[in-house]
Write a structure and sequence with these properties.
Layout (H helix, E strand, L loop, with lengths): L1 H6 L1 H18 L5 H23 L19 H27 E5 L6 E4 L5 E4 L4 E5 L8 E11 L8 E4 L3 E5 L3 E6 L5 E8 L2 E5 L6 E4 L3 E6 L8 H13 L1 E5 L16 E8 H12 L2 E4 L3 H5 L1 E7 L3 H12 L2 E5 L2 E5 L1
Parallel strand pairs: 5-6, 15-18
Antiparallel strand pairs: 1-4, 2-3, 3-5, 4-5, 5-8, 6-7, 7-10, 8-9, 9-12, 10-11, 12-13, 14-16, 17-18
Helix pairs in contact: 2-3
Length: 335
Amino acid sequence: MSKWLQDNEDDRALASQIDELFGLEFGPGRTDEELKSKEKSWERIMKSRDADGGGGQPQPNKPRIFTWRRFIPLSVASVLVLCVGGSYYWMSARKAVQASENIVGTEKGSRSKLTLPDGSRVWLNGDSRITYGASFGKNDRELTLIGEAYFDVAKDPSRPMIIKTATVTIRVLGTAFNVRAYPDEKTTATTLVQGKVQVSVNHKEQLSYVLSPDEKLIVQNESGLPESDSEQQRKVETVLENITKIKIVRTDSIPSEAQWTRNKLVFVNQPLHEVANILSRWYGVSVIVEGDDDMKARQYTGIFENQSIQSVMESLQVAGSFSFKMKNDTILIVP
């Protein structure tokens, strides 16, 4: 094949175009401009084929389009067309999905800030994700949150922002608040900084709460209501016991629950097992607590800013009278 291409200039040009197309199709992530170049390469290849005697527009259902040129074995040509066609279809489907929703997320050990299309600002804590549609800021302002985020919502009375989590749905017009909704934690907490928000418990429309500044609503994470009426009533009574609305006391412009947006790690009367989860997400490590229930339930309070995980663990060790071992990305806390 190499000698043939050396002796036939036209076929060398066609082979070069095919190489260009495959490089654009299967190489690393491409820009829109490079993707357009791929489509132009495809057009040049098809025009070359037509000029060679095919004539007219190729018909997708006619077997003859799979014979790129008479010099290329049919089996190879068929594979080339199927690969390019299948990949083109996959890319089109992927673009359609991407056009319908936007996903922004962070990994453990990282935090991020972004501005939404409506001008609202969002801070994402570690291991968190928001998802919103292409119509966000135009027809609606709905998004889904997994993890923890601080919102500074732009005012738009005609289109309230709706934030959906697995446990609660939050409705706001223009305000600032923090939401912590990690699926592996026992509760979902909404803390209001300014303005007003309405928090509704999912699957239980009668359970809706309006928060004022410096109020916090804590809802236990759970599944939907059982089907029988008696079980529904019992479930509602249980839920009421597992929903707590409290007034918080802040000594700064924002409460301790949102200090993470300033890169401050804050614990306020939090049990050791919760502290371990927070440290895991903050530093991107695995923190394991071994000990009895009393040890895991012991509460800690502290503020750490720009400190290493080693320094934080040493401070907690002094306060908690426990020992810890660090190996690679794992920290083991033992009595």
